[in-house]
Amino acid sequence: MKKLQFILFIILLLTGCQKKSYSNNVVTIIEHDQNTLIGINYPITNQKKLDKIIKKDIEKQHRSFKKNNQSNYSSHQKSELNIDYSFQKIANYYNISTNTYLSNSKQALTKNYIKTYVYDLKKKKLLTLKDILPEGDLYYLTKYTKNFLIKNSTLPKNIIYTKIKQNYNTYQNFTFDQDYLYLYFDSHTFTYNNFQIKIPLENLNPIIDIDQKAINTINTKIKVPTKILDPSKKFIALTFDDGPSIYTKDILKILKKYHSNATFFVLGNKVEIYQDTIRQSIQDGNEIGNHSYSHKWLIKLNEEELNEQISKTQNIIKNTTGYTPKLLRPTYGSVNQKIKELKNFQIVLWNVDTLDWKYKNIDRIVSRATQHAKDGNIILMHDIHQRTVKALEKIIPILQKQGFELITVSEMEEIKFLRSKRKTE
Ligand code: ZN
Q: In this predicted model, what pLDDT tens digit does every residue of 392-412 receive, in sequence order?
């Protein structure tokens, strides 16, 4: 008997471990005050060594931004730190880059830079250029320079070659996919602002084995439950921003327990990693809205950048769920003409702010959500904090006791429409 228990324990342990090594999470930090806006996203890979290095790099940037922007003399301008990431698993390698956008209002300065991490899952180490390219290939780097796609730069090719050759053993500013090697240069390496070159791998002789069968899961459109709403009742719409995260599934569970629904304004850069959560959310009758790709301050972007933040998110949600969001919640609640003119969107703000990102006290969050509850309210919360989960456990029963039904933002619109129709009839 004991033996059997032991075997079962080992099986559990093994399946548990396996599951863990495949699951990736994203940490999102959103902070704002009168001087600064901070939106940070970075991946957790469950590779301890790698996670420690990434976290340390991010924290360093976060700290130094805060230190440099403690006081701000211009009340109209805010400084912004935005960190986005990209994450790709190619064969046995993680290819990660973090992309930092920095704008300092005092010095009227904007900066972009990329930090990259190529991690060998078998050897459990970060790779340098030397680990993936034979030294002989450096010659090709110059030979093919003419074909390099150089973004934002007219850097002479011999400088690129010299720099890479000098740093060959330690050079870490690169990533790759099945087709290309990408080399990044930033203002720390050169006096030029950051840029990248991409070299077709067929022109090189990589040491690494990156052949992998393409696994393309085709996601079928999820079935959404139909609901009948009675416009004579009282309704409130709960909304959750900045997710999904590891806490979103707990929120879905609570919503389900109380036969309630909510709207989730998600960040595009997290959709792939939490695709199960998002699909589950829709299946349960919740709504997904667009909250930009990486939480950049949208009113500061030009048309091209704005479109990228919005449509990249639309596309990734469509590919994951089969649904195209109809709602947009602008980051930090800031709206300008350009955002208003975006087609096919309804802009959704809120009229009750729980301040769950700021207050650590659960009861304080609960009372902000439930005090003065009114039919038609839209409540703002964030599904990236554990305290929000705990607060929600209390909020829903209180609101339901007061006679409110919790529905999605689009359902709320439908209710308004039905009521206006009744009035005119
Ligand atoms: Zn947000």
A: 999 999 999 999 999 999 999
